[in-house]
Design a protein that fits this description.
By secondary structure, the chain is α/β, with parallel strands linked by helices. It contains eight helices and 13 strands.
C-alpha cells in the first residue's frame, strides 16, 4: 500500500496525491460505508493504486488515518487554520463569521479573519469595524487585496505550515484571492449588480499544495446552520472575550443574556466588548435555546 492525501473527490471517485506529487484515482472500499465513514478532501490515507486496466482500472482507499479535524459542510478534513473571508462588497455577513468562529473553536482550529478587496474606498472602515468587534476573540484581522497585492505576502507567511480552508459568503473573492496567493487559474465570478451577491463558482472542495502550505478551496456558501444541538449555556465558552469577566457574574451558570449582575453585560456597557458582537451572541443564544427545547420533537 502507498501513502497519500486526498486532494479532490467527485461522484464516488477520489484523487489522491503521493509524496512525489503523482496522482491516483481511487474508490472507497465498502467497509467505509458500513462504518458510516466517507473519505474527505484533506484525509491522509493508505491506498492501493489501480492497474489502469479493466475492473482494476481505479485503485482503492484502504485506510483513513485519524483526523485532526473534520467538517461535513463543506466536506473537508485535517484543517488547522480556518480563514474567514469577508469584503466591503457584498455587505459582510458577520453572523456567518461568528458561526464559523464557533465551529473553529469546537474543532480546535485557529482562525484568521480576512477583509478582501482592501483596494475599495470603503475597505478601511470594514477593517476597522472588524478589528473593533473581534478584539479579544483570539483572531487576527487582516485587510488584503487580490487586485493590487496588498498584504498578500503577509498572508502567505501567515499560512505557512498550515492546512487552510477559506470560507465565507459567496462573492467575497475566495478563489480570486487564491489565484493571487499562488498563481492559480481558478474560475471566478462577478458580483451581481442587481442583488449584490456573489455567484458561487467553486463546486467541489479541492486541495492545493504550495511548499509547506496546503489550501483547501471549498464551495462558497452564504448560510451556516448550527447543526449540533447543545446546552445553550455552553455557547458562552466559544467567546474568548467573555472569559475575563465570566467568574464575576452574580449567578452561576450565567448565560450572559438578561441576568442581573452579569459581568459580561456590564463589560459591554463599559465598551470592553463590542455591542454588535454581543447582540449577535444573543441571536445565536436564542437559536440554541429553541433547538434545545425542540431536541426531542
Amino acid at each position: 500500500m502507498m501513502e497519500g492525501i486526498i486532494v479532490r473527490g467527485r461522484g464516488g471517485f477520489y484523487t489522491a496525491r503521493d509524496q512525489d506529487g503523482h496522482e491516483y484515482v481511487l474508490r472507497a472500499k465498502k467497509k467505509f460505508r458500513r462504518q458510516n465513514i466517507s473519505p474527505l478532501v484533506g484525509d491522509q490515507i493508505l491506498f492501493t493504486p489501480g492497474t489502469g486496466e479493466g475492473k482494476e482500472e481505479d485503485g482503492w482507499v484502504e485506510e483513513i488515518k485519524p483526523r485532526v479535524s473534520q467538517c461535513l459542510r463543506p466536506p473537508v478534513a485535517n484543517v488547522s487554520l480556518l480563514c474567514i473571508v469577508t469584503a466591503p462588497r457584498p455587505a459582510p455577513d458577520w453572523l456567518l463569521a461568528d458561526k464559523l468562529m464557533i465551529f473553529a473553536r469546537k474543532q480546535g482550529l485557529k482562525t484568521l479573519l480576512l477583509v478582501n478587496k482592501a483596494d475599495l474606498p470603503q475597505a478601511q472602515d470594514t477593517v476597522s469595524l472588524a478589528q473593533a468587534m473581534y478584539a479579544g476573540a483570539e483572531t487576527q484581522v487582516l485587510g488584503v487585496s487580490a487586485q493590487n497585492g496588498q498584504a498578500v505576502d503577509a498572508l502567505r507567511a501567515y499560512l505557512s505550515g498550515h492546512t487552510c480552508c477559506f470560507s465565507g459568503q459567496s462573492g467575497v473573492g475566495k478563489s480570486t484571492l487564491l489565484n493571487a496567493l499562488f498563481g492559480l487559474s481558478q474560475e471566478t465570478g462577478d458580483i451581481s449588480r442587481k442583488i449584490q451577491r456573489g455567484k458561487n463558482t467553486t463546486r467541489h472542495a479541492e486541495l492545493f499544495t504550495f511548499g509547506d502550505i496546503r489550501v483547501i478551496d471549498t464551495p462558497g456558501f452564504s448560510l451556516l446552520e448550527m447543526d449540533e444541538v447543545f446546552d445553550p449555556v455552553l455557547l458562552r465558552d466559544y467567546y474568548p472575550e467573555f472569559e475575563p469577566y465570566a467568574d464575576a457574574c452574580r449567578f452561576s451558570p450565567c448565560y450572559h443574556g438578561t441576568e442581573p449582575g452579569c459581568a459580561v453585560l456590564a463589560a459591554a456597557k463599559e465598551g470592553k466588548i463590542h455591542p454588535a458582537r454581543l447582540a449577535r451572541y444573543h441571536t445565536l443564544l436564542a437559536e440554541c435555546r429553541q433547538a434545545w427545547r425542540e431536541r426531542y420533537d
